[in-house]
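PROTEIN DESIGN WORKSHEET
SECTION A - STRUCTURE
LENGTH: 216
TOKENS:
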């Protein structure tokens, strides 16, 4: 279970909806693209991480990779302290799914039907509000939204702001590593347990050119 500061992210139906819709919408964008687009980010085929400006150019395959990482950490029985990447993924999943509920409710229904939890729920403005509240109720400052601004600052000023916000070089390196990665890692598939069905697992393995034999 992920913990942000002193609050824990509930392992709830709402968190499942946020992660599930973010995954399916990103996967669908990847599937609709030419094969080469799996390893690139095209403006018209952005995934859920487009909600975080610095990570917008993350390849669609890697967006699924980091979603799987955070989902796995969220579903662990023990408490795991969320890092800045977890916060970014959670925010992006909630915001992207909320936006989808407001403007493309049919896509939310399609993402939920046939999943591990075959859901038929009202998809409306109330759901969008609940999804945003899931993130906003947690004690986070949203520092991940400011990461790109450090690059435009003079070095001394950037160091000062990083210190004020408590953003470490290790955290920044983690973000840069996500951008420099092009393929999903083998552990992506087992990490998605509970978020995809066995049939989807086989299909996603083929889409990502991954083996299904790797353990979590």
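SECTION B - SEQUENCE
RESIDUE ASSIGNMENT:
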């Amino acid at each position: 279970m992920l913990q942000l500061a002193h609050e824990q992210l509930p392992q709830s139906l709402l968190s499942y909806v946020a992660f599930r819709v973010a995954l399916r919408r990103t996967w669908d964008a990847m599937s609709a693209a030419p094969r080469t687009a799996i390893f690139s980010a095209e403006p018209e085929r952005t995934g859920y991480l487009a909600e975080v400006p610095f990570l917008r150019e993350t390849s669609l395959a890697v967006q699924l990779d980091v979603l799987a990482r955070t989902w796995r950490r969220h579903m662990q029985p023990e408490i795991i302290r969320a890092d800045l990447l977890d916060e970014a993924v959670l925010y992006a999943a909630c915001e992207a799914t909320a936006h989808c509920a407001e403007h493309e409710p049919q896509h939310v229904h399609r993402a939920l039907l046939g999943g591990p939890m075959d859901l038929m729920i009202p998809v409306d403005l109330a759901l969008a509000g609940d999804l945003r509240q899931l993130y906003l109720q947690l004690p986070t400052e949203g520092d991940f939204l400011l990461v790109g601004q450090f690059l435009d600052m003079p070095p001394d000023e950037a160091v000062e702001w990083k210190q004020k916000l408590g953003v470490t070089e290790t955290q920044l390196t983690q973000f840069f590593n996500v951008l420099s990665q092009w393929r999903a890692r083998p552990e992506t598939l087992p990490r998605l347990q509970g978020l995809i069905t066995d049939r989807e697992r086989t299909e996603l393995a083929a889409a990502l050119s991954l083996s299904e034999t790797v353990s979590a």
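SECTION C - NOTES
Confidence is low (pLDDT under 50) at residues 34-44.
The radius of gyration is 17 Å.
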